């Protein structure tokens, strides 16, 4: 390898906290656990919006899965039509979307929520979403957007955001038991997003306790400057939190008081409507 080829190589992507390889290793004692399948899924998850083209070395670094195993996973995914390569880097193909579609088409939550979100968005003239907790992040399963673009992140079904600094994430964390919250705080990568971000375990525990008492939350510019949102839980008949509903606004249009007085009642009504439809 020449000096030129070494200097032109893309930098390695920072490894994920609590790497997939470590999580897989912890499950290898189960005789029914398929390590190869778990590694293949980890390779798929290594790709992100800002890292759409990755080398074997980069994927191995992100997942901590050995390069030889990553190469076999990529070879299999290419044969099945989920991945393509230019000879050096790899990228996902649209067929990967069928994996998410299988979930969305088989669960009533997203399908049932969509018309409710559409009506709520039309009534409030703001973007409305529903999400579930997936690891340390929230996963958008339905969304009704408005023409205005609220934040720099382009959100759609399948998008993920950190749980700790988002309104839906904070609601979902409040729905966990104390042991699960402790596990989350011990492993989550808590970063300062803005000067308003609550990102200490103590601060988050205090916020979670308040949410459990009042049943809703307003997150004011913790994820991004200018973004303010209110969220409520969606619960089953036993009171277990299944998902979170939110309305996102821009601070220049909607104040906190209006969120509480006008938006929150509409959001709570939408949550009750969704729960009744799911468990009628």
Summarize the structure.
This protein has helices spanning 3-8, 20-25, 35-45, 56-63, 67-79, 97-106, 108-124, 167-174, 178-187, 201-214, 256-278, and strands at residues 83-85, 90-92, 127-134, 137-144, 160-162, 217-220, 227-235, 241-250. The protein is an alpha+beta fold. Helix 7 packs antiparallel against helix 11 (256-278).
Descriptive terms for the model:
two-stranded antiparallel sheet; alpha+beta; 280 residues; globular; disordered N terminus
How far do the termini sit from each other? 65 Å
Order of helices and strands: HHHHHEEHHEEEHHHEEEH
Q: Please provide the count of β strands.
A: 8
- What coarse outline follows from CA principal-axis ratios? globular
> Mean pLDDT score, rounded?
86
Tell me roughly what share of residues is in helical segments: 40-55%
- Helix/strand-derived category reads alpha+beta
- Poorly predicted ranges (pLDDT <50, ≥5 residues)? 1-17
Task: Please count the helical segments.
Answer: 11
**Mind telling me the C-alpha Rg?**
21 Å
Oligomer: single chain
Taken as a percent bin, the fraction of beta residues is: 15-25%
Q: Biggest sheet, in brief?
A: 6 strands, antiparallel
Strands of the biggest beta sheet: in what spatial order? 5-4-3-8-7-6
């Amino acid at each position: 390898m020449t000096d030129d080829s070494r200097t032109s190589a893309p930098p390695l992507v920072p490894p994920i906290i609590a790497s997939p390889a470590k999580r897989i290793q912890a499950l290898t004692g189960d005789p029914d656990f398929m390590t190869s399948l778990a590694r293949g899924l980890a390779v798929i998850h290594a790709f992100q919006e800002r890292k759409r083209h990755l080398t074997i070395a980069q994927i191995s670094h992100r997942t901590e899965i050995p390069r030889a195993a990553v190469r076999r996973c990529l070879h299999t995914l290419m044969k099945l039509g989920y991945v393509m390569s230019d000879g050096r880097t790899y990228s996902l193909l649209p067929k990967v979307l069928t994996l998410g579609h299988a979930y969305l088409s088989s669960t009533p939550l997203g399908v049932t929520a969509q018309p409710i979100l559409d009506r709520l968005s039309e009534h409030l003239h703001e973007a409305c979403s529903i999400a579930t907790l997936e690891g340390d992040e929230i996963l958008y399963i339905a969304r009704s957007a408005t023409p205005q673009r609220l934040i720099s992140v382009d959100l759609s079904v399948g998008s993920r955001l950190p749980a700790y600094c988002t309104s839906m994430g904070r609601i979902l964390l409040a729905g966990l038991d104390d042991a699960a919250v402790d596990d989350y705080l011990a492993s989550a990568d808590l970063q300062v997003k803005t000067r308003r971000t609550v990102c200490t375990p103590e601060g988050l525990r205090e916020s979670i306790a308040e949410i459990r008492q009042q049943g809703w939350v307003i997150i004011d510019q913790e994820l991004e400057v200018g973004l303010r949102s209110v969220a409520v839980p969606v619960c089953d008949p036993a009171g277990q939190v299944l998902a979170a509903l939110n309305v996102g606004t821009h601070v220049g249009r909607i104040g906190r008081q209006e969120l509480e007085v006008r938006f929150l009642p509409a959001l709570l009504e939408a949550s009750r409507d969704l729960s009744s439809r799911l468990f009628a």
